[in-house]
Amino acid sequence: MNSRERVLKAFKRLPGLPDRVPIQFDLCRKLADHFGKELGIPVNYTENLYEDVTYRISANELRIAMGSDVVVTGASVSDDFRIEKDADGTWLNEFGMRMRQGDIYVEVVDYPLAHVETKADIEAFHFPDPDAPGRFRDAEALVKKSKGDYLIFGDIEVTVFSLAHQLVGMEKLLVDMMMETEYVVPLFEACAEFQTQIGLRLIEKGVDAIWVGDDFGTQTSLIIPPETFREQLKPIYKKMIDRFKLAKPDLIPILHCDGAVASLLDDIREIGFEVFNPVQPGVPGHLPQEMKDNFGDQFAFWGAIDQQDLLPNGTDEELERDIAEKIKILGKGGGYMIAPAHIIQNDVSPERVLTFIKLCKKYGSYET
After folding, report:
1. What's 355's domain CATH number?
2. DSSP assignments along 1-52, one per residue
3. Number of structural domains, the chain?
4. Angle in degrees, CA 356, 348, 25, rounded to 5
5. What is the pTM of this model?
6. What confidence score (pLDDT) does residue 105 get?
7. Considering the domain boundaries, does residue 101 fall inside one?
8. Structural domain of 134
9. Does a structural domain hold residue 349?
10. What pLDDT shows up at residue 221?
11. Cis peptide before 284 (omega within 30 of 0)
12. Taking 60 as the threshold, does the pLDDT of residue 70 lie above it?
């Protein structure tokens, strides 16, 4: 059984159980460079329009050599775009957001739509060109290299809600959503249309799944009321997934959504998503048995291993117990691919990364 078949069985797209639970993980640049040098594997970086997504869609050759069962690709920065850092170390990305490097992730410090008020303001804003030179060069090459052996994910994370608040600013956007300000739904529609075009191009290149990414939860609750999600966002996501499925009927739609979002999962399934990631641990409603009992017939799960505290700070024994528990519960009868809940950052040692992979394989047998 190759990796592609293993993941398709875990995602319930092929009958029967895989030979073991599939494994997936993302590495920050420091870890990717470390393992690339150690294993003698060149690390290829695909610079995404939003920099953090770069580490989802890069270093695929390295990650599969280390044990990952999927490859992840996405859109590249245009050949015509050049990052120029100012004296203060900040820079503009292709969306016109002013960025700076934070302790772990990049941060937006100036929003191109910070003063938006009307639908006309949205119509006047120019999104990057989906067909700019070089946009899908890396994706096309990766698909040709990996097709048949690995399931290929097309990543369009920072999709609608997240892209909107990175353009406007979170506080302003949330206030304006509650006030039903004129520009809000047109902004969501414009973000969705841009990412739909990116997703359709990735489907044309041959990806098997589209990975949408927007965070609707905090560590304790939803960011917005469920009614607001259903009125302002749900129809837009439904239209987007419907267009993807029209282009590729056997496409696997995947949602990455951080935070305590169990109360939205019925809506998320109605939109058309089949795989839920990252099943963030340690938040209300996300205990493994709760997830399996309440939503195991609606989704395949992907993730569930804590990278906030357990991976960087827990003991090997604690990590071993957690991995064994997640596979036993979420993997019972199929429907689970194990992974950290987010990109493994440089607060995790290389030795712990290898321990994680080894333990996933040790406890990887599915229970019927």
Report:
1. 3.20.20.210
2. --HHHHHHHHTTSSSS--SS--B---B-HHHHHHHHHHHT-PPPP---SSGG
3. 1
4. 50
5. 0.96
6. 81
7. no
8. 3-77+115-362
9. yes
10. 96
11. no
12. yes
